[in-house]
Amino acid sequence: MNERLTATLQAAERETVSAIRREQPERLERPAAPDPDLVLGRIGVTFLPPGRPDGYIRLFPHDFVVEEILTDGSVVSVVERAPFSDAEDRRTLWADCVKVAIPWPHALADLEETFGPPTGRIGHAGIKDAFALTAQRLSLRGLTKERAEAVTHECLLLHPVRYGSGALQPGDLKGNRFTIFVRGDSRRDIAPFMDRIRAAGCVNFFGAQRFGTRLIAHRLGQSVLQNDVEGALRAYFGEPGLFDVPLYRDLRLSLAESFGDWDTMLALAGHFPYTLRDEIQVLTALRAQPAKTRAALALIKDQVKMWVYAYASWLMNRRFSQIIEAGGEVAGPAPLPLSPRGPLPEYREAMAYDRTDGYRNALVNFPYIQAADRTIPSRIVPEALSWNTVPHGWVVRFELPKGAYATSCLSHAFRIYEGLPVPSWVGLEEMDSFAALGEGSLEPIRERFASVLKRRDLRGEDTEEKE
User: Fold this and answer.
1) For the chain, which residues score pLDDT lower than 50?
2) What CATH architecture is 64-175?
3) CA-to-CA distance for 292 and 274, rounded, in angstroms?
């Protein structure tokens, strides 16, 4: 989806939502912020220590800064620009991408639209957060420095670093450096929690973002692994999230009531062309060929893969919780559940209960999802952990290896709130977290991305945020 089309869809939907807000503002309001421990319980995490102070993140995108750490240990900075290095071999242009407030799949689609065919020429090592300020290295095959520098996009910029050869593959990174402004009562002493993290590390559970804003991605993945494609589609279109505002809850329920009537569903979804852009794509395919449900899902195969991985994440979170609540210790490598050899002993009972133990047969029908024997560390000790107390909260910086979640780490020290409504105890002032740490300033970035580095709309949701 190119930037112009994205902006058109956003504008059309904003007009619809604004009209509803004028007439029925209560339809876009939540009565209260979701309790963090309730959210974590929904994704299988029930072991975190009591007494953690409340903290709010991502009021502004630049409250949450993610900078990629390359395999050589260097950091792709959001503010510092590496000098360009030319070479005789110009098959690959290596460039740093700074991105603000846009999901990576949409940023990638916009770049591909800008550069044109062939597809697959843009390599990246990892997917960065959407509502955040992020920096990462890209490999751009067959593109020139001048074409990269000429890209104009509201939410991203490219800074060429060097010419060379090769291409990035997923996982070609060491980790990420996080600089996060946690808003809260700065009179609270967070040192005991931070010292515990520094000494013993964090249980490496999968955070809420793995499960989508409706917190149902694992249930969609469970349906896929049961080979229940219709069940996955029904939930994808029609199941509200526990914390949805009334407008999007009612929309999902209406889609559920109309399931199978593709014309009616498309008419309902058409009022929200940006939020439901992926659903509209799948519905259009189903209207044309109703029997080809798997082919319709293949149009959003990256999402379907994330559903399956979310289910595996749910299994791991529950296993961590059960071990700790039984008085055990979580240590060493933890195997991922979806082995090509079949259910592993650690998950066999749970998968039999969930009726997913035949997942290998189900995955034959989804060739873009591969089972693999892999492990992750069950406990992570963040490196270079530091924090400064500032007015209305704390600026925290730390480094994590690839595959570890910053919010999971922070949840060992804070009861993390995010999204709307913003709790009344949250300070609304903008913060330059780099300046607070004595590490320069985000001011050049604020100037470049002034149109999107905005505070969340405190009146209510403009869109149902995507998984």
Assistant:
1) 462, 466-467
2) 2-Layer Sandwich (3.30)
3) 24
